[in-house]
Amino acid sequence: MVRLSAQFWLIQAFNGVSYGALLFLVGSGLSLIFGVMRIVNLSHGSYFLLGGYVALTVIWTTGSWALALVVASLSVAVLGLVMERLFLRPLGFDPLRQVLLTVGFAFLFQQAALDIWTGNNFDINPPDALTRSIVVGGLYLPLYRMFMIATALVIGLGLWLVMEKTRMGAAVRATVDDAQMARGVGIDTSRISMLIFALGAFLAALGGVIGGAFLGVYPGLDFEMLPIAFAVVIIGGMGSLGGAAVGALLVGLADNFGKALFPEISYFTLYAPMALILAVKPTGLFGRE
Amino acid sequence: MMTRERIKVLAVVATLVVIAILVPNTNSFVILLATRALAFSILVMSLDLLLGFTGLASLGQAAYLGVGAYLTAILATKYQFGLGLDFWLVVVLGILSGAALAAVFGLLAIRATGVYFLMITLALGQCVWGLAYRWNSLTGGDNGINLRGRPNVGIDLSNDVTFFYLVLAFFAVSLLMMYVLVRSPFGHSLRGIRERELRMRILGYNTWLHKYIAFVIAGAFGGLAGVLWAHTAGIVSPENVVLTTSVDALLMAVLGGAGTLVGGAIGAAIVFGLREYLSTLVPWWQYVLGAVYVLTIFYLPTGLMGIPERIRQHRARAGKPGEAKKLASAPA
Fold first, then answer.
1. What's the topology of domain A6-280?
2. Domain contains B13
3. Does residue B316 form part of some domain?
4. Nearest CA of chain A to the CA of B320: how many Å?
5. What is the pLDDT of residues A44-67, one digit of tens each?
6. Alpha helices of chain B — where are they, by DSSP H?
7. What is the ipTM of this complex?
8. B109: chain A residues, CB-CB within 8 Å
9. CB nearest to A264's CB, from B111, B127, B137
10. Are B214 and B53 in contact (CB under 8 A)?
11. How many CB atoms are located within 10 Å of the residue B254 CB?
């Protein structure tokens, strides 16, 4: 039986928030992609997994974790960009076909990953500087989890600034609101779609590298991550950056407390509230019609 | 018109007869493969009721298969129930449990449309998966539940050929029932909703109720598929309710041709064939499967069953322009 002391609640809350930080990286990209392109991207979990695998290869050959972080994110971003240009864009707007196409690719990526990196479980070891713990008020807090929270904060802040303060961001917001009208006033929505898709893949891969330290990197992680990323975006509302942040935090906490308090129905405690929110407000907490 | 429909029905009946005669004379590998494909086809056809006839793309159809399958497995292993004549009772319970689950999920999901329907069904499907995966004491968690042998309902179903006939019979009856359903006035209303829901609502149809009933019926057939699947595979695990199984069902329906019912069975046969047969031959079989999906979506949006129609349309367009329009609007 778990002893429900104050320490338990604090540690679980900290873990939940740091997991939420990771989920924000995955969810924000998925949310932006949906907002701009109305595409439900079922390859998003694959980007997460591929990010982890590419990082492993870089670490094995160069030994540098920081380099792996950059190379993995960028190469998966290029992969996403190519996928968007060659396959999704020519397909036109048809949600079902888009979904099926992205899932077809998810299967292809899964097999490719299995062939290249075998079926073994790997861990991505972060640099020693990040593996220590610091003591705050009697609690041992792993530095790595603080790093995750900091990364999410920096990226979230950066995205928010770009979205709210730049011309580019205004164009993206216009596309989210009404793509047709945005095209009408001269915004190159095709280019915006391409950039956002690449950005989404970049963030997912970044999450894959960072998450690889405690989730590991293994076959099947892609389809484990995908529904959780969906939960984040669905709760927050598709296309909303703030929604993704709130959704990530809620899912991160629900997941941690669910697993700690009700291990037998932990996934249920994660997805059932999400289904309820959707039933009451189909566009999510912060989504617009 | 009538004759073309009759030819189609005759072709399906003839194919079923050929399958019934041919398959038992092959080896045990093919018999098991055919049984699996047939059992799963019931799920795919139930999904086609939603996808092809009502225009609702569900990404959580595996939940109903899972409920039927887990019910069968839990009753059989924990209570020794459903291994004799009471197997028929399990079939009924499986159908009812699928329908009941769909009745609950439908309340949450039917309001949403398009992409949102897709996502809410995904979420609901994951709820069931989460329970199956984590509720160790009931579901055996990740390992699932092994069934020890098939029921003996007077006839011993542990014989693979006998069981194949049983599943084939269930498949044929399900196909017939769904065929009658989609040809009924109710089925036509569903198609009206698929084409233009707003117009149907203006005409005075309760479109919510129509969709809800279709959803529950699809769930019932999903439950039936689950009961059969449990005894076909001999093991029930979270693998049966996971997102990829729902996606598989969706892809099979689209591959065969949405809105055709039998297309779902053809899609299931092809995918199961590729997966189980090709995987024994080459290690890169999954690329073939992925490529089949991607190519289908790009070049055959109406699926394999849509090929004759496309050829006809192509010819008609070359000949008389008016003819093409008439054919295009003919019911599939």
1. ABC transporter involved in vitamin B12 uptake, BtuC (1.10.3470)
2. no
3. no
4. 29
5. 999 999 999 999 999 999 988 899
6. 2-22, 28-48, 62-78, 87-109, 114-134, 136-139, 160-183, 185-195, 197-202, 207-233, 243-256, 262-272, 279-281, 285-299, 307-318, 321-328
7. 0.78
8. 279
9. B137
10. yes
11. 29
